[in-house]
C-alpha cells in the first residue's frame, strides 16, 4: 500500500471522464488514471467484449493454443504500426514490455560484444529491473543501484542547456561518439516524456538523427511508447510525426485503456531476423491471455471507430489554450508542453522548498480536494511538473470543468506556498 494510502478516497464507480467515491463525491479524471484510461471509463463496447470473451475462455496458454482475440489483436497492432514490423510479443505491463525489448536487444546481439544501452536523463521506462536499469529516474532507482548495475551497461545523455529538459541531437551525439560504436547495443527514448519529464517532447530532428546513428553503427532503436502509444499524442504513435521506424516499439497503458493488464512489444523485421522473438523472450504465465487481448482489441477498435486519434489533437489544442491562460496568471507555472492530450506544465520552486514540500504534490492533493485528478511528474526540482492528460473522449464542457477545478487547486497551492 502507498504511504498515506489510508487517507485516499475509496473508489466506487466510474463512467466517461468521471470517477465517483463511496461518499458520492465526483472527480474529473484529468490524468486518465496514470495516463492510461485513453477511451474513458465504462465504455460498453469494451465491457461487452470482456464479458463475451469470459463466457468462452479466460485462460489458454500461448504454448498450448492459439486464440482468435490474440490473432486479431496482433493483426490490428501490426496494421497500425505499418510496414517494417514482423510480430508482437505480449506482456502484462509497460515495464515488462520494456524488459522484453531489452532482452530482445541482448539476444539479437549475442556473441558480438555489444553490451551498452544509451538512454536519456530524465526518462522512465518501468519498474522491473531491466526496465529501471535503462531509466534516467534517480528517485525510482534509489537504493536499487546494486540490482541495476549488472543488467545493462548504461550511458545516459542529459541536456547541456538549463532551460531544456531533454537533450538535443548534439547532446546525444556527443555522448554516442564517446562510446565505442562496436559496443552500442541500443538507444532507447520516450518521444514525449511522462513520469520523468512531464510532457517534454523530443524534436523530429533528434528522432531522425538517432535513427541514422543507429543505422550507421548497427545498433537497435527502441521507442518507449507506453504512454504515447495508441492515440494519446494525436497520432497513433509518438514517433509518427518523424516518419522513423524504430526497431522495437514498447507499449502498454493505452493499449487496453486500463481495462485489463496487457503490454505489447512490436518487433521490427531486422530484430533477430529469421527467428521468432516470441521464442526467446519467453514471457509470463498471463502474457497473451485471450481475455486481456479481447479487451485491448475492443479498445483499439473503439479508438479507431470513434476517431479518437484526431480528437486527441483537436481537444488537445483547446485544452492547451486553456492551460496557457492558467499559466499566465500563476507565477510558478510554466506554459503547457507536450503533444495532443499528453500535456505537462513545469513548476518553478526553489530546490530547498522542493525537498520538503514539492509543489506538484501539493497541487495534486489540492486538486483531489477540488474533485480533480492530475498527475505529478519529474525527477528533481528542475523537472518537477504536473500533467493534465484526460481521456481522449473528454468533451468541451468537461474540459471547462477540469480547468475551473485546476485553477482553484493551483491557487490554493499558491496561497499555501506564500505562507
Ligand atoms: C514511458 C513509460 N514506460 C514504461 C512505463 C512502465 O509501465 P507500467 O507502469 O505499466 O509497468 C511507464 C509507466 O508510467 C511509462 O510512462
From TrEMBL:
Family: Belongs to the class-III pyridoxal-phosphate-dependent aminotransferase family.
PANTHER family given in the database record: AMINOTRANSFERASE (PTHR43094), AMINOTRANSFERASE CLASS-III (PTHR43094:SF1)
Keyword NAD appears in the UniProt entry: no
Keywords: Aminotransferase, Pyridoxal phosphate, Transferase
Pfam families xref list: Aminotran_3
PROSITE patterns attached to this UniProt entry: AA_TRANSFER_CLASS_3
Top-level division of the source organism's lineage: Bacteria
Gene Ontology MF terms in the entry: pyridoxal phosphate binding; transaminase activity
Name used for this protein in its record: Aminotransferase class III-fold pyridoxal phosphate-dependent enzyme
Matching InterPro entries: Aminotrans_3, Aminotrans_3_PPA_site, PyrdxlP-dep_Trfase, PyrdxlP-dep_Trfase_major, PyrdxlP-dep_Trfase_small
